[in-house]
Amino acid sequence: MIWLAWRQFRLQAAIALFALVLVAVFLAVTGAHLRDLYDASGITTCRAHGDCAALESLFLAHDKVLRNLLGPSLLAVPALLGLFWGAPLLARELESGTYRLAWTQSIPRTRWLAVKVTLVGVASIAVAELFSLMVSWWFSPVDKVSLNRFTPGIFDQRGIVAIGYAAFAVALGVSAGALIRKTLPAMATTLIGFVAVRLFITYLVRPHLVSPNHLSAPLGSVPDVGFAAAPAGTTLMAGSPNVPNAWIQSNQIVNAAGRAPSGQYVHRFLQLHCPSIVETPSAGSRPAPAAFKECIAQLSTSFHEAVTYQPASNYWPFQAYETLIFLGLALVLIGFSFWWVRHRIT
Amino acid sequence: MSSVLEADGLGRRYGRRWALRDCTLDIPAGRVVALVGPNGAGKTTLLHLAVGLLEPTTGTIGVLGEKVSDTPAQLGRVGFVAQETPVYPALSVADHLRLGAHLNPGWDDRVAQERMQQLQLDPSQRAGSLSGGQRAQLALALAVAKRPKLLLLDEPVASLDPLARREFLQGLMEIASEQEVSVILSSHLVADLERVCDYLVLLTASRIQLAGEVEELLATHRRLIGPRRDIDSLPAGQQVIEASHTDRQSTLLVHTEEPIHDPAWAVEEVSVEDLVLAYMRQGTAAQRDPSPVWGVKR
User: Fold this and answer.
1) Shared-domain flag, residues A99 and A226
2) Residue B50 falls within a domain, yes or no?
3) Same-domain check for residues B277 and B238
4) B108-136: pLDDT as tens digits
């Protein structure tokens, strides 16, 4: 059976290998160039002078187009594998009727499926993860400068998650093919299903995978503190504190009891403690810096910023959980495909 | 092992439609069986049930003395040539033989090579570019070289031209005589199979209408032609399958175990085709009208 599975797969495998080599060469050349730029940029020594920001933005201006292309195309790799390797695995046999040839040889159809799924699955995982590693290597100088490894889209391109994505995409393709029995509709279903599940996990499941850390930052220590006047009252605003490489999940200005103050309360507080700021017409003139500073000091006595965040050390747990979720989904789908092929097909 | 295919109350339903129902059969070993019936009568369903591609909805089916299952041993004993003889278009003829050799422990490469030489197929030719007849022959070679005890063929000659049809059936007969193999082949045209089969199973409207040895069937059916008479007046042993009447004359096709003694009848032997057509009409009439219609009275 291994012979047949390989014989039917070898052309696709050759195409994938060719693409891998092509991309590897391209990335090696452009990646080496990017590394030279990084070494020449002076970023490595800038900490001593303290002029890092300018150097970094100068460096990040390079290869922008390529960077914007590489990321999304890497995200498409697992989907393509599911489409072109997963979906036709059963659908093509069922559509063309060759399953009647394959499943009436002296080998149970479940073993036939096991060998094919294993070969295609392992190959897909290998291809997706190799692409991911290559692109991660290419990006490593960029990541050193502007890394937020948790950013959706970046998180999905690095580490080990490609393994889970590829396994899931192929499993989804296989089971869609078993159910639908036509190659093109199975491919379309695979694409839609894959994108939907990826978005769902990224935005609705991933934030809850690891319980976050909490931090209360005094208002004086956080950047961009300010006020906004609105008819309903005045709101306080503040930027996130600088936690290196962390994923800030929420930040809110709260009182000592941990509750967000109402607009009216803030307004009255400001009227009481820093009248000069409240009375400043909102358009045109600005409050005097000294008065502003004084006002923030006053606010700090009653309010602080409550931050929920995932520290950089949670990165690998996140990677592991997300990979396991997709591997688990893949296993469920493959289990379903086996059951369906064994009991429900034809 | 005396029977190659046993079915008891076998039925298969697709959604609400029964493709096959109440099928009870016992086909003895060593026969070449013609499975005949109009398109959509359930022939493919029966064969797929026999080879394990389908599971029965009701009843049981056994092949070569064992319940149909997809164990390697059971699969190895049944050769199957599916309808329209599917092959992998991108794989060469030689690849198909290699496929057979890898997937069948009982593979007999000598048989496969002999068949290929006889057919003069180019081993490096892609299966996708074969003619219908060549493809059917390749599928047959694959099914035969696994050395089955039972060979099932689903409409193997339906899409072949008359010459390829003859060659295919000739090849099949050689195989049946050389190897100890029972053969069941289906067709919607009985004329294709009349010369090669010695056992007949007729399926109409998803039910078995008739099953038996061809010789016995021919011996127990007669066409009676005589003056017009009411068919109720026939002796008890004579069962009318089909009757047609003109003003003065009645023509009956009857099943009888006894010789016909009534001198009023001119007695004729029937052909397999007559028999099949008569039972087929009976089956379709029964389908239109649930109460059995034995003849058309005027």
Assistant:
1) no
2) yes
3) yes
4) 999 999 888 888 888 999 999 999 889 99
Residues B194 and B255 in one domain: no
Give the nearest chain B residue to A108 (CA atoms). B70
Q: Which helix (H) or strand (E) holds A197?
A: helix A183-200
- Those of residues 152-211 in B touching chain A at CB distance below 8 A are none
Q: Are residues A200 and A287 in the same domain?
A: no
Chain B neighbors of A99, CB-CB under 8 A? 53
If asked whether residues A262 and A276 sit together in one domain, one would say yes
Is residue B297 included in any domain, yes or no? no
Report the alpha-carbon distance of residue B63 to residue B61 in Å, rounded.
7
Within the 57-76 window of chain B, which residues sit less than 8 Å (CB to CB) from chain A?
A: 70-73, 75-76
Q: Which residues of B touch A107 (CB under 8 A)?
A: 72, 75, 103-104
ipTM (interface predicted TM): 0.88
Give helix then strand counts, H and E, for chain B: 9, 14
Give the DSSP per-residue string, A275-323: HHHHHS-SSS----HHHHHHHHHHHHHHEEEEEEEE-GGGHHHHHHHHH
User: What are A108-143's pLDDT values in tens digits?
Assistant: 999 999 999 999 999 999 999 999 999 999 998 888
Place of tokens 């013609």: B34
A341: distance to nearest CA of chain B, Å?
A: 10
- Is A304 in the same domain as A337? no
Distance in Å, alpha carbon of A206 to nearest chain B alpha carbon: 41
State the residue range of the domain holding A283. 213-310
Q: pLDDT for A323-343, tens place per residue? A: 999 999 999 999 999 999 988
Residue A79 has pLDDT above 90, yes or no: yes
- Domain containing B259: what range? 220-288
Would you call B128 an interface residue with chain A, using a CB distance cutoff of 8 Å? no
CB pairs under 8 A between A and B: 78
Which CATH number do you get for residue B39?
A: 3.40.50.300
> Is B296 a domain residue?
no
DSSP H or E run through A266: helix A263-273
